[in-house]
Amino acid sequence: MKRKDEVIEALEALGAKILQEIERGENPSLEVPIRSLSNVRYNPETRMLELGSERAKRYFFNVAHVRKFVQTVEAAALSKELKEVGKHLSLREAFYRMKRTLPGSDINLVDEQEESNQAIEDLELITNLSREKLHFNANKMGSVAGKVVIEDKGDVVDWSKLGSGGWSIPSNVEEIVFKEVKARFVLYMEKAAEWERLHEDRVWERLNCVIMCSQGQATRGVRRLLQRLHLEHGLPIYVLTDFDPWGFYIYSVLKFGSIGLAHISEQLAIPGAKFLGLTADDVERYDLKKHFIKFEEVDLRRLEQIAKYEWFKDNKEWQRQFKLMKQMGAKVELAALSSKGITFISEHYLPEKLRKQEFLD
């Protein structure tokens, strides 16, 4: 006997629970794991952020709870419909599908997209299924190039033959099939501008690697694709960012996970990732002090926060980097390396750091 699809099974189980409570004359409820800093912990064994066991109950017959209760049930109904017809909706489209006035009232089910987004996130927590598996997609924002061939929705795509733009990474990468992976490692960078530099220089060909970017903090699709390449094909992941607290934070999220998505760290985090970006030593070595961008108060606060993270606080090399950055009172962008030559980052900086294995863990 064929097992029922896990998404349909989870959604029907949720519906059945609510119906049973109604039939028993009870106040229908939803139990939602609490997603806050107080309920997130770092597991030193897995080297990932994990969601704790604290949960909150929302009741239908409770003025303070009813709106979120109904929004979450609506998200579940929409997810089931999407799964049954084999379609996906963007988060924006889901908002418009959910936005309507409740019968006999002048109250909208949702007024802002933030409300529908939150309902979908709550549904993730309740069902223990990712947003993408529930058939909701975010905007795509990322590019990739390299010696990899995939199959996506029946189309065979060669990442090495897609012109100057590379392959545009979708929000949902779960159904992608890797047909051929010849690359030795992945270079992930925070900025599209640096990706374009490396792509034009054909670094992916010269170093036999995959180059990938998002724009700022990596999207879920990018993080999941990186994780799949790492776990399924054994590719080391090297993170290339600016020498600033925000670049360090981007690396931290890729490696250990984030507070907001601690419930799906196992599907996104890459504990084996290494930092290959600019360091205080690079600033000295390549004489980049003249390209300093002076710290603002917000930069200093972010640096001090990161330095106290449990996964960094006992790491001597990372604490050394934090200390030197604070002493400098400034940050430096990867783009500053272009002062040494247009292709300096591609022909000298990256090959040299890889050859010497100058990674931070």
Notable features of this structure?
Dna Topoisomerase Vi A Subunit, Chain: A, domain 2; three-stranded antiparallel beta sheet; 361 residues; alpha/beta
Can you walk through the features of this model?
By secondary structure, this protein is α/β, with parallel strands linked by helices. It is 42% helix and 17% strand. The chain folds into two domains: 6-27 and 62-137, Arc Repressor Mutant, subunit A (Orthogonal Bundle); 143-356, Dna Topoisomerase Vi A Subunit, Chain: A, domain 2 (3-Layer(aba) Sandwich), CATH 3.40.1360.10. It has 14 helices and 17 strands. The strands form six sheets. A six-stranded mixed sheet has the order 10-7-13-12-14-15, with helices on both faces. The longest helix is centred in the N-terminal third of the chain and has 20 residues, at 66-85. It is globular, with a radius of gyration of 23 Å. The mean pLDDT is 94.
What shape does the CA trace take?
globular
Strand content: 15-25%
- The first-to-last residue Cα distance is 47 Å
Tell me the helix content: 40-55%
Q: What are the segments in which pLDDT stays under 50 over at least 5 consecutive residues?
A: none
Furnish the topology, listing elements before pairings:
Layout (H helix, E strand, L loop, with lengths): L5 H18 L5 E5 L6 E4 L4 E4 L3 E5 L6 H20 L3 E2 H8 L14 H15 L8 E2 L5 E4 L1 E5 L2 E4 L8 E2 L8 E5 L4 E4 L2 H9 L2 H4 L3 E4 L6 H14 L3 E4 L4 H12 L8 H4 L5 E2 L4 H6 L7 E2 L2 H11 L2 H4 L2 H13 L1 E2 L12 H13 L5
